Amino acid sequence: MAAQSHNEGQSVNRPPLFDGEDYTYWKTRMEYFLQGHDYQIWSIVEEGDLLVTNEKAQWTDDDRKKISQNCKAKSIMCCALNKKEFNKVSAYKSVMEMWEKLIITYEGTDKVKETRIDILVAQYERFQMQSGRPGGIQGAVPFGCEGRPGGVSRVVSSRLILKTHSLPLWARQLGNSAFEGEMADPETLVEGSDSERED
To answer: How many C-beta atoms surround the C-beta of residue 164 within 10 A?
Structure first.
């Protein structure tokens, strides 16, 4: 009889390793790991190191705890990166700078995100025109909604939806493939649930 194989979950004691692939997935898991491990460490990553104003010779116990938390946050971040990714951020002094460098490298600046959103909107609108539906995106009938009783829910402006969702969510849904020609599922752009449509 063949042995049954099964997959096990990752350890809650070890940060998820980032090897340069699937940044959005790693970033979300890393946030959850840090928050679950010690929320103060997550605050250090987001907001910067805990401030110690005394000279080293005059550190109090509270100062030492702050320094220890800062070092712990940086250590966890370093343990979560393979050598190639570590080399990209190793020159930064604080863990917040390391985190922000990874965000800019893999998600881009706000301007880059805005450009990606504009590209996704243009692709979606082009897709709607190519599908032969009159009226472009505003007049499009969502897939699966044709002939439903009680009328068809209107399609919300794709630009509004893209701008109100965080880019990492869209990057996750689209596999960060705005430049590879993949399209969003039009069902995700329908306003309201099935129960609302039937009322």
So the answer is: 8
